[in-house]
Write a structure and sequence with these properties.
Strand content: under 5%
Structural class: mainly alpha
Shape: globular
Helix content: 55-70%
Number of helices: 3
Length: about 70
């Protein structure tokens, strides 16, 4: 997506996709809250592998949204 910016797009361009089309990259963020925002914006376009604290925060967000809208 265009909103990723040139820096992130350059990181993605350097990493070849695997057989399923996924790329494994490490992206630095100034805070976990900023990382949460990016992860939510990208939605199903990414999987957060680490840190576990970010994965847990995203689980909480998904649980809240599921209970609110289902």
């Amino acid at each position: 997506p265009l909103f990723l910016g040139e820096y992130v797009q350059s990181i993605l361009a350097e990493c070849a996709p695997d057989v399923d089309g996924w790329r494994r990259v490490e992206l630095p963020f100034r805070s976990e809250q900023i990382a949460q925002g990016w992860a939510c914006a990208l939605s199903e376009e990414l999987e957060v592998i680490a840190p576990e604290s970010l994965r847990g925060a995203l689980r909480n967000i998904v649980t809240t949204l599921t209970s609110r809208y289902m």
